[in-house]
Amino acid sequence: MINGNQIRVTGADTVDILFTSSHNLKMSFAEGFRNTGSLEEESSARIKAALAKPYDRLLSEHVADFQSIFNRFTLDLNAKVNTDIPTDQRINNSTPGMFNDPGLEVLWLQFYRYIIISSSRAQLPAGLQAMWSADADFYCGGGYYLNQNFEMNYWGCEALNVQETMVPVINMWSEHLNNSIRKDGSVAVVGGNSGPYTFKGYDPSNFAWMMHTLYEHYRFYPDKDLLQQKLWPLMVAGSKYYLINMTKELDGKKNLLSFTCPENNYLCDPVTDAFIYDENKKRVAFKDTSTAFTQQCAVSLLTDTVEVANLLSIEPDFRESCEKLLAEMDHGLWISPTDGRLQEFYHDNLVGQRHHRHCSHLLAVWPFDQVSPIKNPDYAAAALKSVMLRGINFGTGKISTKWAFNPTGFGEAIRGGICARLGDGDNAHHAYHATLSGFVAPNLWPGCYYPGEVNLLEALGGAAAIVAEMLVQSHIDNKIHLLPALPSAWPKGNVQGLRCRNGFTITNMSWDGGKLTSASIRSELGNPCKIYGTKYTVTTAEGNGAVSTTTGDGYLIFNTTAGKTYKIAP
Predict the structure, then answer these.
(1) In the chain, what are the domains?
(2) Which positions ≥6 away from 318 have C-beta within 8 Å?
(3) Is 28 helix (H, G, I), strand (E, B) or coil?
């Protein structure tokens, strides 16, 4: 019986309540992203379809759909799973620096996969608080901020085998940006005020950063139709911006001057980290300098554009123009002569907040692939020096007085990912654990500055990516690096379902005593497989004997057949 806003049920043992909702979004730039149809009719049709099925069938179909994605990946750290202890108590018991509940670390990783699967398979991508909403009262409008936040949401999705969640990102991005190309063929700054239908861009670098995120989707599972139809036109437009505008020079190298580093764009005292003010009591902003962030983002997009032009065998003249600019421009990698760090700004004497929550000058390490211990160890050592000088809260669980800004959940995640890429597994794990023990609310949602303050998916996505990067990396020339940054806190374990670039999946990998014991790799596309290390034995999963391998500079390579699995033994 319905009485006003009450529903009263009598004479029943159980009640099934079906709920649905509709929104006025339409993925059409030309129509202002608005659906003018009847939301009531849409919702009513959906309810009627559900009512045609019994509850048990609705439940089983939902579980089957969800588990078809969720069950692809498992991680076992050879530890007791404390399911008899409530989650909030497990978090409280997780003493910073004392890794006494590995099962909680796995649970939190899987929580990210649960959230991203649940919030990013419809029309719109996940926002700051995951599930999209048109409610402007959300923190920062719940929108899509491109100076790290939105990208971090998806850092873990490819390797952790929830790649379908990238589809709404690609669709919305291409719909927005293909309709925002300028008369000169270029595109740069995207969005204005962030809201439920728009992106918030700060400078051209945000576009390049986001394009790298989309291109990574292709690199994990190459699909040339996606590349040519949706990504290539935008890569061309973004690269044209740099070809047109990167004309100024510093010491003979082309630069984009006067752009800032995200949220760290004011001069500070190099000792106290305090802002410097002018005679009008206003903070002094950077000008007439170059930032590592700006140059590294340009390098990323131009390099990817050249690579794709070669893959698709198209536009050789445009490719050559990009190659020429790459040769003439500054790549934003400057080692400080004073302390050996990788500088954030071109001029070593210009200092922003040294302990800022962002590490945008280290994008060359993560998520880009411009710096690594294997590729250029000198720059890698300088990058590690830089992230340590940035200010770390690893394992303390306390707000350090050395930070100009309080430590943040997403800040810890960024530092951890950088450490993992640099092969520093212990500090990467410290960062993951510090985010979990210092910023997470009882419902497992990470806060920005403290638990429960505001839910931020970016911290969760960044932290989950740390785990993937500690266990496997494949960003340098698609070569697979097994256990590249395994922390000492995880001496024994097993992982199944990690994805690698160029169409490979680690179906099973075990380690003991901190050393690899076995790995099985499935070839999804039949591409040649490259693995760092030259002393592995490769056999077929069926046991048909050894697979022929050749060696390169520190790696081995073998041919594969699509759908076949290969066993790797040390």
Answers:
(1) 66-79+110-474 (1.50.10.10), 493-569 (2.60.40.1180)
(2) 236, 239, 309
(3) coil
DSSP 545: -
- 177/238 Cα distance (integer angstroms): 10
φ/ψ (deg, to 5) at 212: -65, -40
Measure Cα distances from 203 to 19, 171, 238 in Å.
42, 22, 12
Task: Say whether 442 sits in a helix, a strand or coil.
Answer: coil
What's the one-letter identity of residue 281?
A: K
- Return the closest-CA partner of residue 410 out of 452, 363, 446, 366: 446
- Best CA proximity match to 265, nearest among 297, 293, 235: 293
User: What is the per-residue pLDDT for 134?
Assistant: 58
pLDDT in tens, 136-186: 556 666 667 777 778 888 999 999 999 999 998 898 888 777 667 777 777
Residue 466 near residue 416 (C-beta atoms within 8 A): yes
Collapse the DSSP code of 502 into the 3-class scheme (helix H, G, I; strand E, B; otherwise coil) and give the result.
Answer: coil
Q: Which of 94, 112, 70, 106 is nearest to 493 (CA)?
A: 106
Q: What per-residue confidence (pLDDT) applies to 449?
A: 58
Tell me the H-state helices in 422-498: 425-439, 457-471
Q: Tell me the CA distances in angstroms from 239 to 244, 259, 321, 486, one per residue in order.
A: 9, 17, 10, 37
Tell me what percent of the chain is helix, strand and coil, each rounded to the nearest 5. Answer: 35, 15, 50
pTM, to two decimals: 0.89
Burial class (CB in 10 A: 0-12, 13-18, 19+), 50: middle
For 106-130, what is the mean pLDDT? 86
Q: Can you spell out the DSSP letters for 180-192?
A: ---TTS------S
Per-residue pLDDT tens for 298-310? 999 999 999 999 9
